[in-house]
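Work package 3, deliverable 3.1, input record:
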Amino acid sequence: AQRVTQPEKLLSVFKGAPVELKCNYSYSGSPELFWYVQYSRQRLQLLLRHISRESIKGFTADLNKGETSFHLKKPFAQEEDSAMYYCALSPMNSGYSTLTFGKGTMLLVSP
Amino acid sequence: DAMVIQNPRYQVTQFGKPVTLSCSQTLNHNVMYWYQQKSSQAPKLLFHYYDKDFNNEADTPDNFQSRRPNTSFCFLDIRSPGLGDAAMYLCATSPGHGNQPQHFGDGTRLSIL
C-alpha cells in the first residue's frame, strides 16, 4: 500500500523568506509525485509534477528516491502563496493517475 | 471554459435519507473520480470510472455507490447517510492515459442532520 506523509499541518513564514514544505512517501513500485494547491475559496489544482521537472510560480520539487521525499521549495515566499498544499502519489505504470494524498500543509505568508 | 462542475455546492440531508451528488465535465475525459475529504484530513478516493468500468476502493463502505450514465456525468449516491458521512465530496477527471494530472471540481459539502 502507498502512503504520503506531510509532517507539518501549518507552516508560517514572512514574505521573502525561503519555504520548504516536506513530503515523504512509501511505495514499493515506481511512483509519480504531484503537488496540488488549494487557494482560499478555490478548487484543488495541480501545482507541479515531478516528471515535468519545471518551476511553477517559483516553486520547485525534486524527487529523492533514496530519501523517498518530494519536498516543495521556493526561495522567496510571497503573500499570494498562502494556501493549502497537498502532496500526492500515483503509481507510475497505472496508465492513468490514481492519487493517494497527504493530509496537507497550510502555508501562511505574512507581510 | 472546459471544467468539472459539481452540484450542489452545499447539500443538507437527514440521517438515513438517501442523497445524490452530481458531477459533470466538459473536458471529455475518460476517467471520473469521487473523493471524500473530512475536516483536516487528506482527500480519500472512494471509487472511479474508466469509461464505463467501475473501480471501487477496497475500504469504501457499501453505503456509497456511483453511476456514470454517459461520458459527461457521474453521480455519487449515499443510500443511508450517517453522521460520519458529513464531509466535502470532490469529483475529479483525468484523460485516462499518460498518468496525466486530475482536474477537480469545487466540491459539494454534505451536512447530515
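The CA atoms of residues 31 and 91 of chain A lie 5 Å apart.
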